[in-house]
Amino acid sequence: RKEVEQDPGPFNVPEGATVAFNCTYSNSASQSFFWYRQDCRKEPKLLMSVYSSGNEDGRFTAQLNRASQYISLLIRDSKLSDSATYLCVVKRNQGGKLIFGQGTELSVKP
Amino acid sequence: DVKVTQSSRYLVKRTGEKVFLECVQDMDHENMFWYRQDPGLGLRLIYFSYDVKMKEKGDIPEGYSVSREKKERFSLILESASTNQTSMYLCASSLLANYGYTFGSGTRLTVV
Question: Is the CB of A102 less than 8 angstroms away from the CB of B31?
Answer without folding.
Answer: no
